[in-house]
Amino acid sequence: MKLVWRRAVEARGLLLAAAIAALVAVALVTGLSDYNRRAVDAGQRALLAAAPAEERSLLVSGSGGRDAEEYADRDRAVRAQFTDGLGGVPVTVAAARYGTGRELTGDLGAARVGDDPMFATLGTLADLPAHAELTSGTWPAPGSTPLQVTLPEKVAGLLGLRTGDRVPLFDRSSERAGEVRIAGTWRPRDPAEAYWRLAPGVGEGDGGDASHGPFALDPADFARTFPGSSSASWLVEPNLGTVEPSRLASVKGAVAAISEKIPEATGLGSSAQSVTSMDRLIDRLGRADLVGRSALLTPLLLIVVLGGYALVLVAALLNEDRRPQTALLRARGAARGQLAGLAVREATLVVAPAVLLAPPLA
């Protein structure tokens, strides 16, 4: 090893040039790779943020069953399908129940057009206060008389309703009149959130003309008001922002497989509907990752070629400088293996510092 150090000191200028060339090449490759990874991640996040809710989630809808017990069974069965997520990707599941057959019979002003009946969508949405903020009033108090509900701010404005108003309703199934009281109004914290697929027209987009709402009830009040048949929806949203590109195909396959088996596995039967455009988003994420990584190839090859060329030039100069020493060592009986060992150890002195220092510097 002493001979290696002595030879290195004698040719310190050329060895320093070789070390600098290796250091610069490794630093550029490492830095460019890290930059590309960050750019691809940022592009993936931007793509997810810009995607519509239908591409970021799966909406499962169907009959809520004949009573609360049957709904509970179906709710557990649906959630069980996503215990392991989608293709191993964690998901969140939010549920909503809806009641039908309540006609709005009061003075609705400009909202009423012609003699066509207008209906109120009464429902209960899981964790609504976490996704919406009150603009007036309070959240419904269970067990109140008349029944307390909250209403989206823009729906209340359309119907000309304010907090404290009583809204007459006609139950077409029992042919009985009743009323509800507006306890408060609210608006979405994030209208683009996939959660609002549970309440069409509340988030981005407009509601229909014939049915308005949701008139959101407390879950206990909903169970008492609609003890029989109701409809239900489950919103399944995977955390695609944490998915490695190599796992996107498994997520896409899991969505298709679960959508196919949900009707039989959950008891929803022919009423089951699974609506999603997640496959489009997954395809775009895959293409974006491929394009991002492909864009890295050309500059990496250029750096490798230029760095290699610089090292070859320095090695040629060093070889020419070492020619007399090599001839002398051979004359003194040094074998080819010994000379090769000296060359390897000298190369290690050049490459090792570059490999160790370049990543932190990059």
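Second entry:
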Amino acid sequence: INTDAIDNAGGVAMSDREVNIKMLLQPLVRTGELSEVQRNRLLKAMTGDVSRLVLHDVSRQALALSLAERRSRADLGVFDSLIQYLTFRGMDAQVEQLPNQRALAERAKAGEGLTRPELAIVMAYVKMGIYRRLLETEVPNDPALRHYLVHYFPGELNERFADAVRRHPLHSEIAATQMTNLAVDLLGMTFVHRMIRDTGASPAEIIRAGLIAFEVIDAEALLERMNALPVSVPADTVYRALDAQVEAIGGLVRWMLLNDLSGEDVGAFVDAYRGPLAAIRRDLADLLPGAEKRRYLKLVKAFQSGGFVGELAHEVATFTYVPSSLGVIEVTRRTGVELDAVAKHFFHVGERLGLGWLRDELTALPPSGRWATIAVGGLIMDLRQVQQAITERFLRARASEPKLSLQAFLERSPNVLRRFDEAYAELHESGAVDLASGSVLARLLEQVRAG
């Protein structure tokens, strides 16, 4: 179905874990903390736990290939670019029987993507590259990310021999492998490549930012909830939810890189942003103004119609607002105004200027080449930055004029506001949003920000 390496991954992973567990226990036997008999009994007792860990990893990798199939049909161009990059880095595409650019162009015209065996090969090269990059850094040894090492081993080992786990001879390599697998399996094999293309950041910076983003939004928790869903929930709904999470993480990573925050202390950054972001997502329905709230509830209803029940549909729908919410948190930190008050004003600014609709239209533009894709992504980030800046200026103005309304604040530069409103109304009526028209509106919006 895939490749031998994928279809036989369970056996290989089981063997690797057995070797690593024995490597962990051997010093304990040597020092007398465990006897040979006790070691053997422990190994036998952990068989079920190890099997579950292996099956968890293997099933997640299979899901990653299914998501990649879907994504390659939607945007084969980025996979083409990735294959060219891997070829430049030493992969022999012909030996690996990967399609050339002409074949990929024909598939794109036919609405086809890469096959699972082809994707499995690309995934292997991507994982090897990310793994090597991680080992060149101290990220695998970061105390705030120690759970990647801990969760590799069965719970009983961590309970009884926590120090031995931390001192494992291959602790860095094991953590780097687990980080790599999660990053590629969850975010997709093109994620790091796209981030390099879009931001110019180094692979190490992107991977580190991505791992921080996992912690900030508790990404693995959603994966576990997806695994627990009944089989009656359509796969397409699950895929859309996971894609929404990837977009949220991508927005967070871009924001971190744009604000030069990828080098921040992992634990400190997570502590500063996870709580406020969770609060915004939890209360989002009460924070959004009219039209934006209706847009959010429409997303919730779409996931409910797809089989998600309870809070899960709401949780997934909030992913759309994660990148913008980071601006809310930053304004709160800068101004000292309460989080919920900043959020309400921030989203009110977005609604008054129609930024949600404009971002949606830009996001929905079909792929039209590498540079256009980069430009659209940059434009969307610019819109969020301007929304953040206008919100902060407005709140600082209200500090001395508590009754100042947003409209009155914007009308302090009436001609600038009029030009933006007229251009926006014309574009909204025509629906002809493209890179050029979006860029014009962004320039006018920048003038509104400058006042």
